[in-house]
Amino acid sequence: MPTTKVTIVYYSQSGTVATMASRLAQTAEAQGAEVRLRSVGRDNDEPVEGEPQRPTPDDIVWADVVLLGSPTRYGNIAGRLKVFLDSLGAQWGTGQLADKVYAGFTSSQTLHGGQETTLLALYNTVIHFGGILVTPGYTDGSKFVDGNPYGASHVTGAANDIPVGDVTNTALDHLVTRAISISRRLNA
Known about the structure:
7 helices, alpha/beta, globular, Rossmann fold
């Protein structure tokens, strides 16, 4: 079976989404996937030392699985991730973004801080791409613990000081495992 190619593109202001993205990458690599971890950057265009490369359209075209991460911004995705997604018009227009597995992950400061609406807003773009949404649903017992069938999510607390722990890591592991599994079935 060919190696599954996974691209993870995210925006992270406080580091939580970056931590989540790293966990997804580690889990995907442990399953034999080839992974490209990409950050759209922060408030300037200068890469920070140690931060992953910036994403390019080729990173999405190359992938079998695309995982997109953003903190909530008023119940929506962060503008920097949206700018990147909006730059993919040429690839969308030629069908290069279709028929790939997509899923999302997010974080917010509070439990009801817009996690579900952020993921749903993200999925509007994926639907236009012709992507195949592979959300976790309630396909694993861990989803009854973290409570988010739309993707993986984490509550940071108002001070952004609640670290990503076992519940979130289990949800992230399930998300990427499910996405890779479905992609492998589709490409078999």
